[in-house]
Design a protein that fits this description.
Blueprint (H helix, E strand, L loop, with lengths): L7 H12 L1 H9 L8 H12 L2 E2 L4 E10 L4 E10 L5 E9 L18 E7 L10 E4 L7 E7 L5 E10 L2 H5 L17 E11 L7 E4 L23 E3 L5 E8 L6 E8 L7 E7 L5 E9 L5 E8 L4 E7 L10 E6 L1 E7 L5 E7 L5 E7 L11 E5 L8 E7 L4 E8 L8 E9 L1
Parallel strand pairs: 1-22
Antiparallel strand pairs: 2-25, 3-4, 4-5, 5-6, 7-8, 8-9, 9-10, 11-12, 12-13, 13-14, 15-16, 16-17, 17-18, 19-20, 20-21, 21-22, 23-24, 24-25
Helix pairs in contact: 1-2
Length: 423
């Protein structure tokens, strides 16, 4: 294969939409909605006219600080509630680069990034010092995904970058994803995703387990294995685990969403099918959910689509997905929680002024997304570098939504939460 390096277009998608989201949002806002999506444009127009509510079926109770330390940068929380009621919030922790005299403190890729967690029994009072979950031996631990199976097994997912000298990059199997040194402080090479597992309630973790290659992917990791990047996990009624991942299907920035599954509690993984692939729109950071009827619904972040959220549905257990649709509103990435009455709480970051966190309540089969009411949980964010919300049920009526946040120019990016009441 001819030696290739990643062009600036790829770096713009990866590091400007994920690592530097404030710039990425400007790029996406300049991207017109496709002419072929006239039906979606109609949905978007109607949705933009819908009122934004602070009342009705969601009532905000309070904001809480989950973890903040001026020496560290935090991001990408994931939340579970243990059988004894204890709540775990896992997240990325890396040095705030201002400690070393640097001017850009908020890069999500760092050779010292680790996955850690804090704990609480009430969602308001949290342990002060985080516990280490995992430090990936070959690179950083970027992002966090956490799933608790019905038998108590914990499964975590993350993706990783490593910093390699130019002479090493020259010897790698090509093509590889290499960061722009002007964005980061070195040449970071993407390593793909991995899985870790705990069978003792999070006291110890085993892994990493690597997912299989996606047939469409074009980039290699330094190990020559898959470059699929992480998404969120869910457990179906049968015990099958669904994992929506994304990867690059061409070297011009094309990114699609794909489904992996596991039938042995995350020990091995099988590629199932594409979730959404398009010649112009890119799909990533997918949340996959099984409805009471048995449909598999995928909620996807997009680029080149003006940041409009998209959805795709499988009616055959995840063997194939119907054509993706625009959901008619902006925001990413999305996460869901099944409520006691089978309605679905949908939460997402909002990286448009006013920056913050938003939510909707969908019906049990998630079919009313175009007409669902939008609720503002936070609108006091300083920049677009915030979000990745994750909900967990506190009790019959209250939900904690955790996310990372940034309130003012001198603020340390931290893990915060909002407690809401669901009516």
């Amino acid at each position: 294969m001819k030696t290739k390096t990643v062009k600036q277009s790829i770096i713009s998608l990866l590091f400007l939409t994920v690592i530097l989201p404030d710039i990425g949002s400007q790029i996406r806002s300049q991207s017109p909605i496709l002419a072929s999506q006239s039906r979606e444009e109609t949905v978007i127009e109607l949705a933009n006219k819908a009122p934004i509510s602070h009342e009705a079926s969601i009532r905000k109770i309070k904001d809480v600080m989950i973890y903040e330390n001026p020496q560290f940068h935090c991001g990408f929380p994931a939340v579970i509630k243990r059988p004894d009621g204890e709540i775990f919030v896992a997240f990325l922790l890396s040095p705030d680069r201002r400690v070393f005299g640097e001017t850009n403190p908020h890069i999500h890729v760092d050779c010292n990034a680790q996955t850690v967690m804090v704990r609480s029994f009430d969602g308001e009072t949290w342990t002060k010092e985080p516990d280490l979950i995992y430090a990936y031996p070959f690179g950083d631990s970027g992002g966090s995904g956490l799933l608790q199976l019905r038998d108590g097994t914990l499964i975590g997912v993350a993706h990783s970058y490593t910093f390699i000298k130019p002479e090493g990059i020259a010897n790698l199997k090509k093509p590889v994803i290499v960061s722009d040194p002007s964005i980061l402080y070195g040449s970071a090479v993407f390593l793909g995703s991995y899985v870790i597992r705990s069978t003792d309630g999070g006291s110890s973790w085993k892994g990493p387990i690597y997912p299989p290659a996606i047939p469409a992917e074009v980039y290699c990791s330094p190990f020559g294995n898959t470059n699929a990047s992480y998404g969120q996990l869910s457990e179906g009624v049968s015990g099958r685990i669904f994992w929506g991942v994304y990867t690059w299907h061409n070297e011009q920035g094309g990114i699609g969403s794909y489904l992996l599954t596991s039938d042995d509690k995350g020990l091995t993984w099988t590629y199932r099918c594409p979730i959404a692939v398009d010649e112009k729109v890119t799909f990533d950071e997918t949340c996959v959910y099984e409805t009471p009827k048995g449909d598999i619904v995928a909620f996807m972040r997009t680029a080149r689509f003006n940041d409009y959220a998209c959805i795709a549905r499988s009616t055959d257990g995840g063997n194939s997905f119907e054509k993706w649709e625009s959901m008619g509103f902006q925001g990413h990435p999305m996460n869901v929680l099944r409520l006691a009455d089978n309605r679905v709480l949908l939460v997402y970051g909002y990286r448009h002024s006013p920056y913050g966190i938003r939510a909707r309540i969908l019906n049990a089969e998630c079919t009313d997304f175009a007409t669902s009411e939008e609720f503002v949980l936070r609108d006091d964010g300083h920049t677009t570098d915030l979000g990745y919300p994750w909900p967990v049920q506190l009790d019959d009526n209250r939900v904690l939504v955790a996310y990372y946040f940034h309130r003012h120019p001198d603020d340390t990016i931290h893990i915060a939460g909002t407690i809401i009441e669901i009516k």
